[in-house]
Amino acid sequence: MIISKDSVVSVTYELKIANGDGEIVEKVNDNNPLTFLLGHGNLLPKFETNLTGLTTGDLFDFKLTSEEAYGKISKEAIVNLPKSLFMVDGEIDNELLKAGKIVPMMDQSGNRFNGKVLEYKGDDVKMDFNHPLAGEDLHFKGQVVGIREATDEEMQHGHIHQAHSCSSCESSCETGCEGGCN
User: Fold this and answer.
1) 66 plus 79 within the same structural domain
2) Using an 8 Å Cβ cutoff, are 89 and 182 in contact?
3) Confidence at 163, pLDDT banded by 50, 70, 90
4) How many angstroms separate the CA atoms of 65 and 100, rounded?
């Protein structure tokens, strides 16, 4: 089978920052390959494009520019927030506000995301909400370890289902994904 839109694809890979150091960011092996439904917006579009046309056993080795990956660092994603937002039971946890700490946050619409504490001074906490790999060119090297056709349910939900759970929601597939599917 050839990888194309609506294929369920499994890959192993090593992801490095594509600079002189080649720092390893992530390594995905045979024990737990990345498995996804191609063409449904679940992964970086250019990552999927580079896999399209490959077959099981094929090796891949490609780079994505920061623009093709997580974009350039956005100054608008670096903001000052009042420290009062970080109060729990009327107190500030100073450990939470140390520079470099990743803090889970939620916006007014209930969307969850992570922010990195850059600085904590006085009544302000400077946070960076850029993706951790923003501004980085990425190098993927790996192998296609499996391809299959998506089920009707996976196509309907826009993501894969694995043994008794949905890959991108936390509800049981036996009862459907009403609570968590997009």
Assistant:
1) no
2) no
3) low
4) 25
Given a contact cutoff of 8 angstroms between Cβ atoms, the answer to whether 180 and 170 are in contact is yes
Look up the CATH number of the domain holding residue 83: 2.40.10.330
Residue 61 lies in a domain: yes
Which residues have a Cβ under 8 Å from the Cβ of 11 and sit 6 or more positions away? 28, 33, 34, 51, 60, 142, 143, 144, 145
Lookup: tokens for 104: 């889970």
The model's pTM is 0.78
β strands within 18-123, DSSP E: 24-28, 34-37, 59-64, 78-82, 87-88, 91-92, 102-106, 112-121
Structural domain of 102? 75-128
pLDDT digits (tens, 9 = 90+) for 91-111: 888 888 999 999 999 888 998
**Strand, coil or helix: what is 49?**
helix
Looking at the structure, tell me whether residues 55 and 35 fall in a common domain.
Answer: yes
CATH code of 15's domain: 3.10.50.40
168 has pLDDT over 90: no
Q: Residue 2 gets which letter from DSSP?
A: B
Least confident interval from 52-61, 101-110, 137-146, 165-174? 165-174
CB atoms within 10 A of CB 168: 17
Instruction: Please classify residue 23 by burial: count the beta carbons closer than 10 Å to its beta carbon, then call 0-12 exposed, 13-18 middle and 19+ buried.
Output: exposed
